[in-house]
Design brief:
The protein is of the alpha+beta class. It is built from ten helices and 16 strands.
Length: about 375
Amino acid sequence: MTAALREARYRWHNSTDPRIGDWHRRLDRLASARPRVTVSYPAGGGPVLAYAGIDDGLQHVLPYAEQRRGPALRRAGRRTTWARLDAPEADLLFVGYLTGRPPGPAGLAHVDLPFRVHLVVRPGTDPAAVPTRLSRKARQQYRREQHSRDRSLEVATGQADFEYFYRRMHAPTMRRRHGDAARSVPFDVALHSLFAQGVLFFLREHGERVAGMLCRREPGALVLRLAGVLDGAGDAYRTGTYLGLYVSILVWAAEAGVAEVDLSGTEPFLSKGIFQFKRKLHPLVRVPANHFASKRLRLCVRRDTPAVRDFLVANPVLVPGGRAFEAWYFRDRDRAPRLDLRWRTDGVHGHRVVDLDEFLGGAPCAASSAG
């Protein structure tokens, strides 16, 4: 694949150019004329899940829902039409759709969500003020470990540096975190469309490279794309290594006059670990500016079971509300809302505690279904 084709491939998936977004919408309409329904049966406990609609959800929505529920014993898929879009065998049905398209079966308790959200920090022009964005506890940890671990930020420019980052940091970190489900930017695309168009950072502790981040430069913005710690070490969050790396990059961005640092996207659930971690940086939560801007996600409850209620309570959601989002926490008389999953950050204007008996229409809680 030539460098031009690699760049075209990258821009197709990530560009904020409205013309590319328009072509995405056209092709999504064609590809989803007969939408796929995929049902995921649990290997252990938990609800039967299904995803239907535009194909992007098979890469983002269903894998995350399975991660939160537990692994799948098996998946079963079929094609259907939008008029008959349903999964009667499922307890929970996620429907990915384009704005303006009918979102699936009527008459079910549901909530409409953004398909994905992006987390963006505006670092300002005062590098010394960047750490003040952190919560008091995180700020104390950051400042303490900057000195105790003798941390420094390195900007690397050689191809050998990129290869070291990709093979010794990024790839093993992805394998450790996601196993067989790991997905990332291929080596050659990362080399030509990220490294050649961006900045590679290493965080050093006592002189040793311990973590790295590969970013792409866009007009007025720095987009954080690939991260990793040396040999995929599992204690990077506990020791504050990732926090040190992110804050150091934001300090660099403030010094360089970068208007925005895009911390990348995530599913619209407060239970997403990366959302909770990046929330410490007080980012602005907004709808992505790329092709995901025209996509939405409907979460439908097909069957009221204890497992469904457990899932909803454990996974609070971000719901569009005017110019910002609102965090929804589910509860019932036997299940307390997961308020420990914090929502406070820019772009989320408040929260609501939703009673499941009211949300589900007062239907009795049935025995869990088997797949």
